[in-house]
Amino acid sequence: MQQYKEVDFGDDQINHVVRALFVDQGEEELQKAFDVFDTDGSGALDADEFRKALGLLGEDLEEEELDTLFKKADSNKNGEIELDEFSLLFKDMSARLNTEFAAKEDLWTSMSVLDFAVKVRISPLHLRKVGSIIRNMQDSNITFTDDQINDVIRALFVEDSDENLEAAFKVFDEDGSGYLDTKEFSDTLKILGKDLPQHDIDELFETVDMDGNGTIDLDEFHQMMKQLGLRLNVSESDQIMASMSVLDFTSKIRISPMNLRKVGAIIMNMQMSKEIEFNNEQINDVIRALFVDQSEENMQAAFEVFDLDGNGYLDTEEFRRALPLLGEDVMPEEVDAIFELVDTDKSGRIEIDEFTCMVKQMNPMGDD
User: Fold this and answer.
1) Among 239, 297, 232, 309, which Cα is nearest to 268's?
2) Which of 142, 143, 206, 222 has fewest C-beta within 10 Å?
3) Could you tell me which residue, 281 or 196, shows the higher pLDDT?
4) What is the mean pLDDT of residues 347-357?
5) Is residue 152 within 8 Å of 110, Cβ to Cβ?
6) b/e per residue 66-99 (b: at least 16 CB within 10 A)
7) Bridge partner residues of 45 (DSSP)
8) Distance (Å, whole) CA 139 – CA 133
9) Contact 193, 133 (CB under 8 A)
C-alpha cells in the first residue's frame, strides 16, 4: 500500500479502500472507499479523480486507456462516476484481484519447491501446468522428493536434453528396472495430468511401446514426452504474447493469467484464418464473450462475428468455420454430430440461445 502513503492518505482511508476491495463490499464500505477518492466531496468522481483512483489501485494505464475505461464505467454518460457506477467497477476489480491472488498464492506455494535456476526459466504461459504437475506429485501416493520434482519440471519445461529426460525417466521408474511397466506408465500419466480411462491408457501404452516388448524404455519415454506436447517452445510463447496485443485494455486486464495460452491460441486462429478475415474489433468481441463477461450483449456480439451472412443464425457451414476458431480441435466428421447436439430445437440451424449455451459449456466463467 505504499502508493497510498505517497499521496498522504491516512491509515483509516487506506483501511477503507482495502476493506472494500478484499473484505466487505457492503454499501457502507463502498461509500467510504468512494469518499476517499472523491477528494472535492462533490458526490461524484470527475475524470481527474478517477485517473488518480485507478493509479492508486495499482492500475498503470495510458491516457487513452484511462479515457476508455472512464467512458465504460460512466454508464449514464453524464461525464462523472457516481457511487453506483464506482461500486460496479470496484466489485469487478475486487473479483478479478481476489481470483488472481488466490490462484497465484496456490501456484506460488507449489512452485516454492523449485530450485531458483529452474523457476526463473519457466515461461509464464507454463505456470499453470507446472503448478498442476507439482501438486500431482505432492499429492501422489508415491513419495517424491523435492529433487525429483525439480528433475521432472526441468525436463518438461526448461530444457529437454538427454540428461534431463533421463533424470525425469528415473523418477517414474519406481523400481529402478530401467524401464516403465504398465503401472509405472499409468502413474506417470496421472502425474502429468493425463487422467485417462484404463482402455485409453492401454492403447497409449501400445502406441508408445514401439518395439512391442511390453515395457517403455528411455528412448520411448523421450518420444512420449514430445508427443504429449506439454511444453511450448520459445517461439510459440512469443507468438501467443504478441497476439494478445490486439486486445482492448479493458479485456486484457480481466483475463486470468491461467487462460493466456487458450486466449492466444484463439486469437492466432482468427488472425491466420484463410477463409475469413477478422478485424481486431471482432477478435475482441469473441474473446470478451469467452473469457471476460458472458452477458447477453457480449454473446450477441460474438455470435454476429460468425453469422457471416447476417441472417440471425449459423448454418452448418458457418458452424464448421466457427468451431476451430473457438479453440475446439475437432475432426471434420465430428462437426455434424456436434451441430446436432447444439441444435436442441432440431431446426437445422444454430440460434443465439443455442450458441450461448455452447460457448458457456466450452468455457465456463471461472474455469481456468
Assistant:
1) 239
2) 143
3) 281
4) 93
5) no
6) beebbeebbeeeeebbbbebbbebbeebbeeeee
7) 81
8) 10
9) yes
Classify burial at 163, counting beta carbons within 10 Å of its beta carbon; exposed 0-12, middle 13-18, buried 19 or more.
exposed
* Those residues with Cβ within 8 angstroms of residue 216's Cβ, 6 or more apart along the chain or in another chain: 179, 180, 184, 185, 205, 208, 209, 224
Which three three-digit cell numbers place residue 309?
A: 451472412
Residue type present at position 137: M
263, 319, 268, 272: which is closest to 292 by C-alpha?
263
- Residues recorded for the chain: 368
**DSSP string for 57-79:** TT----HHHHHHHHHHH-TT-SS
Is the torsion defined by CA of 206, 207, 211, 216 positive or negative? negative
For residue 275, what are the CA distances in angstroms to 200, 313, 315, 323?
35, 19, 16, 13
DSSP label of 366: T
Which residue is associated with the grid cell 463490499? 25
pTM of the predicted model, to two decimals? 0.43
SS3 216: strand
Residue 176 backbone phi and psi in degrees, to 5? 70, 25
Q: Give the pLDDT of residue 182.
A: 93
